[in-house]
Write a structure and sequence with these properties.
Layout: H1 4-9, H2 30-38, H3 41-46, H4 48-62, E1 67-68, E2 84-87, E3 91-94, H5 101-106, H6 112-115, H7 117-129, E4 134-139, H8 141-150, H9 158-166, H10 168-191, E5 196-200, H11 209-215, H12 217-225, E6 234-237, H13 245-250, E7 255-257, H14 264-271, E8 276-281, H15 290-304, E9 310-314, H16 324-337
Helix pairs in contact: 4-7, 8-9, 8-10, 9-10, 10-12, 15-16
The chain binds coproporphyrinogen I.
């Protein structure tokens, strides 16, 4: 198996900088859109053969160095007792937002083998057949709680922030059950064959460092700490996290995912040499023509400066409307510009 991705996660020397893209499977692909004409997104997530097929597409088409399981962060919520759907053009929508003691008491902890066997089946099938490492993933407790409390996507997650300050004991009960579930879920994915995992705390950048430390770090570090014995790279990612990066490292990450707002070299200065860094090209640049992509990718690679431990990625997911050919050329560009003789 080609393992430059795993080597870079461990800050070992690599023959070329590895590259993969968040949301590398999805709407920008004609094949995915065609499949979505016939199946709902959650239906694809729950059918191992469809999820595996969609996971493979970008690996085959783009030549990326890692696959990420096709699923969604809301998949484990339904068996926990949450009525959730993914609405076209909106995102996850929760039927009854979780804001009270009663609503939290109704949640039950995820038991991965019984509750989401289709995920483990897809992971097993992919891990046994892909020739690049498979990344498993989960939403982090804060980001999952944010959807539960708000009932859907939100601009600033103000209700969630108010709840954590106003009803801390309720907040901790919610974080407790989500944290326990996420840990079990990620452990099960690794046991089924995932070679690395990414904890998506996409919306945690809405918090101040003090609030992150007080209300989120303990739950996320229990998860990352609880995975450490498995020996796989642990990628910890969020959007708008410039001020949170050292805390996200301290939670137990081996790779910190950084968005495009913080230059990669500055992010690395804040993080120190003890972790790998993933990112950070602005996904909007991919809509701006090839010259802009070349310039943007060149700046990211320049900021990485060839030090071990860079995993090239976008600062957030591939945007719908991105030309698959641009992604393909970007993979080649990263590989060509970082080729090390004798690597
Ligand atoms: O119907 C569709 O096809 C809609 C688009 C879509 C897709 C392709 C959604 C709805 N989810 C997904 C799949 C998905 N979700 C993947 C696999 C794709 C891949 O990487 O190859 C992954 C990793 C996710 C994870 C996910 N879902 C995150 C974390 C990553 C991130 O982008 O920050 C989040 C926040 C979600 C929630 C979600 N699901 C879908 C949407 C549009 C959203 C975001 C809504 C919002 O803005 O709050």
């Amino acid at each position: 198996m080609e393992d430059r991705f795993l080597k870079a996660c461990r800050r070992e020397p690599v023959d070329r900088t590895p590259v993969w893209f968040m949301r590398q499977a999805g709407r920008y692909q004609p094949e995915y859109r065609a499949l979505r004409e016939r199946h709902g997104i959650l239906e694809i997530c729950r059918a191992p053969e469809l999820a595996a097929e969609v996971t493979r597409l970008p690996v085959e088409q783009l030549g990326v160095d890692a696959a990420i399981l096709f699923s969604d962060i809301v998949v484990p919520l339904a068996p926990m007792g949450v009525g959730v759907e993914i609405r076209e053009g909106v995102g996850p929508v929760v039927a009854e937002p979780v804001r009270s003691e009663r609503a939290v008491a109704r949640l039950r902890a995820l038991e991965p083998a019984e509750d989401v066997p289709f995920v483990m089946e897809a992971v097993r099938e992919l891990a046994g057949t892909l020739d690049v490492p498979l990344i498993g993933f989960s939403g982090a407790p804060f980001t999952l709680a944010a959807y539960l409390v708000e009932g859907g996507p939100s601009r600033s997650y103000a209700r969630t922030r108010a709840l954590m300050h106003g009803e801390p004991s309720l907040w901790w009960r919610l974080m407790g059950i989500l944290g326990e579930s996420v840990l079990a879920y990620l452990r099960a994915q690794v046991e089924a064959g995932a070679a690395a995992v990414q904890l998506f705390d996409s919306w945690v950048g809405n918090l101040s460092p003090d609030d992150y430390e007080a209300f989120v770090l303990p739950a996320s570090s229990r998860i990352l700490g609880g995975l450490a014995d498995l020996g796989v790279p642990l990628i910890h990612f969020g959007v708008g996290t410039g001020e949170l990066l050292p805390l996200m490292r301290d939670a137990g990450a081996t790779v910190v995912g950084v968005d495009w707002r913080v230059p990669l070299d500055r992010a690395w200065d804040r993080l120190g040499d003890g972790v790998a860094v993933q990112g950070t090209l602005d996904p909007a640049v991919l809509l701006a023509g090839w010259k802009a992509v070349e310039r943007g990718a060149g700046a990211v690679l320049g900021a990485a400066g060839g030090r071990p431990g860079h995993v090239f990625n976008l600062g957030h997911g591939v945007l719908p409307g991105t030309d698959p050919d641009v992604l393909r050329r970007l993979v080649d560009l990263v590989h060509e510009r970082t080729e090390r003789v004798g690597g």
